[in-house]
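Supplementary Note 3. Input sequence used for the single-chain structure prediction.
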Amino acid sequence: MLEALRKHTQGWMAKIILALIVVPFALFGIDSYLNQAGGQVAVAKVDGQKISMQEYSNAVENARNYMQSQGQKVDTALLESPAFKQSVLDSIITRRLVEGAIQDYRFRISDDQLSQHVVGMPEFQNNGKFSEDTYNQLLTQNKLTPAKFEQNIRKDLAVQQVRDGLSNLVFMPQKVAEQSLMSEFEQREVSVVDVKVVDFMNQVTVTPEQVQAYYNQHKTKFIAPAKVKLQFALLSAAGLVGDVSVTDEEVKQDYEENAAKYQGNEQRQASHILIGFNSTASAAEKAAAKEKAESILKQVKANPKSFEKLAIEFSQDTGSAGKGGDLGSFGRGAMVKPFENAAFSMKVGDISDLVESEFGYHIIKLTGITGESSDFDSMKLKIKAELLFQKAQAKYAELADDFGNTVYEQSGSLEPVAKKFGLQVQTSPAMTKDEIAKFFKSERLASLVFSDEVLKEKRNTEAVEISPNNLVAARTVDYTPEAPRSFDEVKGGIESLLKAEAATKLAQQKGEALLADLKAGKAVNADWITPVTVDRRNAQGLTDSVMRNVFKVNTHTLPAYYGFNEANQGYTVIKVISVNQKLKDSPEVADRAYKAYQQALGAEMSHAYVASLKAKKDIQLNVKVLMSNNNN
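The predicted structure, written as C-alpha cells, is reproduced below.
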C-alpha cells in the first residue's frame, strides 16, 4: 500500500501539476487561461467540451511561471518532453472534471468566503492591509473586471475545498499508522550467500540417449516458424527533406520568434522602476506618466547608486518596489517582450532608457547574468535543419493519403507507387512474423503480411504508419512454411538445457541444506558478503530479488535466515543480523513521517476520486497534435 501511495505523491513534476490544479491563478493569467481558447484545434475533449491548444499553451506558461516563482531553473527541453506535456494536459482535464462535479452537486463559495480570501491575498496588501486602490490597479493592468476576477477566484476556491475536503476524510488509527511506518522506515543489517548454478555445471553429465529422449517427447517445441521475404516501399518525412528548402530569412525569423527556445540556459537578473498606466489611459495620462518616468531616469543617470532608493520611493510595481525594484532571475519568455528585448541586450551594470510596455514605462538596471546564451550564428544550422524537417513533415502529410490510395488501387505491385513518389522498392531477408514486427516496429504490418490477401493473393498490404512520419506498404515475394527442426539442429541446445536443469537442482539442494543447518544453529562454511544496512529505499548494492525478499524474513529471533530460488542463477540465502526501527529512537522523525503518511493517504484519496470522475466521462486525447506542438 505504501508503494502505491508513494507513486502518486513523489517527484517535482507531481508537485508542479498539483499546484496547477489547486493554487489560485489570481493575477498570473487566469483570464487568458480560461477564455482565450478561441476556435483553435483541440488537444483533448472532456464529454465533448474542447481543451484548445491555446488553453494548453497557457497552462504550460503558467507552469513555467510557477517553477520560476519557486526558484527553480526552467529547462526548455523539459517543457517539450512528452511526460511534462501529458502531465500538464492531465492537470487541465482534472480541473475540468472537478469543476464539473462542483457544478453537478451545486457546491458554491459564499460571498463571505470570497471576501475573506481576496482581502487576504498578498497581491492586494499595502502596509499590511488590503488596499482597494491596489486591487483596482492590478485588475486593470491584467485586463480583468472585478466580476470576472471574483468569478475565477470562486472556481479556484471551490476546487481547493474539494481537494481539502477529500484529504480531511482520511482517517488512519494511530496504531495502524505506527505499524505501517515502522515497517516502511525499518533498517536491516543483512548478509547474503549465493549457491550458484554455474558452480555445478561441471558435475553434470548428460547422455546422448537423454538428449534424444527429450527431443522425441517435445517435438512440438522444435518447430521452425514460417518465414517470408518482403518487398516494401517507405514514404518518410526524412526522405522528403531533399525536396524542400529553407531561406536564410526564414531561419532568422524563426530565431527571433522563438528566442526563448534558443536561449540556452542563460538567466538575467534585473531591477526596474515602473511608472504605470492602464489600458484605458488617455494620451494626456500617458504623457504625464512618461514625463514623470523621464524625470526619475534623469536622477538615476546622474547617480546610478540611487536606483534602489528611487525604486522604493517611486516604482508602482508593488511586488518589487519594496526590494529596491529587484525582480530576481528570469529567462526568455518570462517577461513581456519589450522588457525582455531590453534586458537581454544590456550588459551588467547598464541602466536602460525608458522602455514602454503594456504596463507602463520601465527603467531597467541589469544586475547579473548567469548561464550561457546561444547566438544566431551558433544556432543557424540547427534551426535550418529543424525548419527543413518541419517542411518535410508538412509535405509528408500532404502525400500520405495519396500514397495509401495508390498502394490500394494498384495492389498487384509496388512499382507504381515507387515511381509516382520517387521511392525505391527494397527487399528484406526472410523473416518470421516476430522478426518483421521487430524490424518495422509494427505488429500491425506483421499481421497484414501473413494475411491470406497478401500471402496467397499476392497483393500489397495497406499503407501502415509504423512510426510518426513513416508509412510502409509491403508484399511477399517468397514464403517458407513452418516445419519441424531436425534433431541435429537442436541437439546442442537440448544438451545445454538439460545440464542447466540438473545443475539447478543440485544448487537448490545445496542451498536448502545450508539453510537448514543455519536454522539449526550449526556452524557452516559459507562465503557471506560483507554485511550492509538496508531499508526499503536504499539497497546498498543488493539485487532486486534479494530486496524483494529481505523484508519477508521473520526477525523474531536473530540472526534470522531465509532462502529462495533465483531463476537460472541458483539458490540465495539471506541472513538478517540486526533490526533497527529508527522511528522509535526519534519522536520528531516519527511525527514528520506520520504527517507525511497522512498527506500521502490524502493524495491517494484525491487520486482515486479523480479516477472515478474520469471513469464516468468520455475523455478523448489528440496525442498527435499535443506531441507535435512546439510550446516555446
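The radius of gyration is 34 Å. The mean pLDDT is 81.
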